[in-house]
Amino acid sequence: MQIIYNNLLELEKSGKSIRTGIVGFGKMGKTLAFQLLKLKGFIPSVIVTRNPQKAKESLIEFGLNSENIVLDSEFDVIEEAVKNKQTIITDDYKTACKLPIDAIVDATGDTAYGANIAIESIKNKKHIIMLNVECDATIGASLNDLARENGVVYTGTSGDEPGSIMELFEFVQNVGLEIVVVGKGKNNLLDNYITNDDLVESAKVKNVSTKALTSFCDGTNTMIELTVVGNAINFKPDVLGGHGVTTTVKELGDSFKTMSEGGILNGYGIVDFAFGVAPGVFVIAKANNDTDKELLKYLNMGDGPNYVFHRPYHLTSMETPITIYKAVVENDSTIEPIYGQVCDTVTLAKRDIDAGEYLEGIGSDMTFGKITSHEETIKNDYLPIGIITKNAKMKYNIKKGQFITRSMVELDYEETIVKIRSQQDKK
Fold first, then answer.
1. Which end of the chain has fewer CB atoms within 10 angstroms, the N or the C?
2. Average model confidence (pLDDT) for the chain?
3. Residue 275 and residue 174 in one domain
């Protein structure tokens, strides 16, 4: 009982801590740092941010003594500071990855930057925890292979919907039921063509960037999260973009039935999303024998044939320490793309785009993403939205609502994420 809690207490008592680096100090990075400061057995050893002074002020607000905070300095100095359990703040992720720490958490949400962070972490033998689902969905398969070659853990995190779905998936799998559908509740509205200007006031209220909120509301973030899940469990969307039904927890099982059962699905083994069940995640399973069916009915799980398992929350970075612990102490992941690139989030135009324009990706006013199978991506030359970097340029004119293909775009092959994804697709 209480294995994680007790082991962390023992670490604390012995004067040891899980030394963690956090890259990115936005909403997720800040709240994670606060978690690590208040929990036993952890220490935020290094923070990587573009604004070190602001980060220092936040850490002091969280209760960390200013004497225990060291701003960017000579490597020998900050290396010694880490050993002395001080917290380093720097703007250099490469320096952070070389320090004597156990794990790096990428909390940036930037695909191009995230690829560099992950590779640097892995090469320096640091476990890498991806709060960056955007990068994970794009090249996670390659990064996971690289991590295994280097003897470290590559993992998504508890608290993000993919990790929460995976935890529920494992539970249902371990009680011997046949899982047929997994998914998440949709928190925000869904308008593929929404812009940053439309969401300025809402972003202020939610205290998030307009870019992040735009990616939520235009559906791209949901597609990316489902892509991460599909790559971990070998499930695909039933249709382009998923069905996104409006339902209730009680009706979820009936909402996701096959056509032969009177429902909407072409088949099972799918990832999808639903309105009306947020902020939770769900797994739908079947019982294939009378004994299980009888027990599930006795336990008020319904008459079947589809049984719903719903977790009504996910606590984002509050749960990330669980994943850090599993990676460092147990050498285990929360969620990883063990099946390779099963799904993709591909790119559609949010407005008319002219040849010569620099293309913008996730959270922009130019594009949005839809989930599809990787086979469809390759067959149709679709452009994965995660490889749109700052120097990507349109070769041709394109109309609002059209798919954008790779051949339409001049990609920046100097970017690590573009190179890795291109190599990955040739395998």
1. N
2. 96
3. yes
Give the type of residue at 213: L
What digits encode the pLDDT tens for the residues 378-405? 999 999 999 999 999 999 999 999 999 9
Same-domain check for residues 134 and 34: yes
pLDDT, residue 73, reads: 79
pLDDT band at residue 188 under the 50/70/90 scheme: confident
CB-CB contact of 140 with 154 (8 Å) = yes
d(CA 74, CA 77) in angstroms, rounded, equals: 5
124-182 pLDDT, tens digit each: 999 999 999 999 999 999 999 999 999 999 999 999 999 999 999 999 999 999 999 99
User: Which residue is listed with tokens 């990316």?
Assistant: 224
Judge contact between 253 and 287, C-beta under 8 A.
no
pLDDT in tens, 217-245: 999 999 999 999 999 999 999 999 999 99
Helix (H, G, I), strand (E, B) or coil at 217: helix
Residues 145 and 189 reside in one and the same domain: no
Q: Say what the pTM is.
A: 0.96
266-283 mean pLDDT = 97
154/172 same-domain check: no
Contact 131, 212 (CB under 8 A): no
Number of domain units in the chain: 3
Nearest to 133 by CA among 363, 404, 409, 382: 363
Residue 101 lies inside a defined structural domain of this protein: yes
Pick the last residue of a domain from 102, 133, 158: 158
Tell whether the model's pLDDT for residue 352 goes beyond 90. yes
Q: Answer yes or no: do 373 and 398 share one domain.
A: yes
> Is there a domain that residue 89 lies in?
yes
Helix axes 416-426, 111-123, angle to 10 degrees: 80
Look up the domain containing 371 and give its range.
343-426
